[in-house]
Input
Amino acid sequence: MPQRVLVVDDERGIREALRQVLEYEGMEVVTASSGDEALKSIAGSHPHLVLLDVKMAGMDGLQTLAKIRAIDDTLPVVMISGHGSIQTAVEATQLGAYDFLEKPLDTDRILLTLRNALQHVDLSSENERLRAVVTDRYEIIGNSRAIKDVLEVIDKVAPTPARVLITGENGSGKELIARAIHRQSPRSERPFVEVNCAAIPSELIESELFGHMKGSFTGAFADRPGKFEQADGGTLFLDEVGDMSSAAQAKVLRALEEGVVTRIGAAKAIEVDVRVITATNKSLEDEIAANRFREDLFYRLNVVPVEVPPLRARREDIPLLVDKFSNDLASSFGVQSKRFSQDALDDLATREWPGNVRELRNAVERLLILSVSDTVSAADVARIGGHTQESELGNLMLCNTFETFKQEAEKAFLQGKLAENGWNVSETARKLSMPRSNLYKKIEKYVMERK
Output
């Protein structure tokens, strides 16, 4: 779609000359002969840019600019004048003009200015779109009491500088909580830097957090800032903080107490202003008892605790999450979203979901890919495997002997794998690397039937 430019000038000859130049460049041109007409045109045609003359009868260009800014403070306005002065240019800039051009107008200068202004509009629009996408991606979904309690804590703690310790099972959404706190805080325009302490080898975690100087160790070919420096003014999210080495814990404690970090190999400390949010799926109290985590650091981090509920504690949110994941995934795949039948949703809601929300999202993605109908059915859900509360795995602990346990576990495993492969015995045997005849014998032995 061509970009639309509004040309405002009380001289018809100038309006038409600019129209010819801009239309030749592929732009759509709308014209107005006065300030009042320009304001009406902005409301009706929604231009991407305005070329506005300063000297006009009635409402002049500067007055018109002020009114445009009151309507839309993002619309770029380029002022043009045959009586330009430094004072007028300064006043126009103070009112929010993008640029100031003097008559007689130079065609190359006009086109360069307009291209720069329109590119600025495109970048701003793209930034807003990406911001909306990112916000939507990390949206916390749910109407359950359990998730509402978490959101209430976020609303209270986000505007403060307090440190937050987020606890919860893997896949329950601890990162979403951390991002929500950052997004609602005064630091929201500053960086959000994430570090997964469990994913970084213990010998590298200090370099990752605090940076290093060139030559400080083998492989340090250049000075490198750490995550604390990168997050200066913003938020540092330390995920799986319970897996941090003892040496790194001591340095983090110092950074929190003194507000300074020292790169490996450096003699001088660097001041940092960082809000630290941490998360773990471990019991830090147990880690302290086992001498694996510093008690003084725990009290520094655990100013405001937030416990994220597992998915099984908020089953009523599962239909909302399924709908959200289905729409998001369909959009990213470039396909139409699929409806989930009530039976399918009921089946999904009864499962234990040890991997929590992350596991549910993966299941929805699998169902969108594998289901052949426009509606995902309970039969489709059964084919992806998994276990409901009433499944055989839920009863394993009721076995009285180890031999019975082994038989029940084997039956449950094979039942799940057969369901996962649509009861295709040959395919299941191939994936399990076992002879097909053996699998048939197991099916007969355990009297397994397709459900």
About this structure: The longest strand covers residues 275-280. The first helix runs from residue 12 to 24.
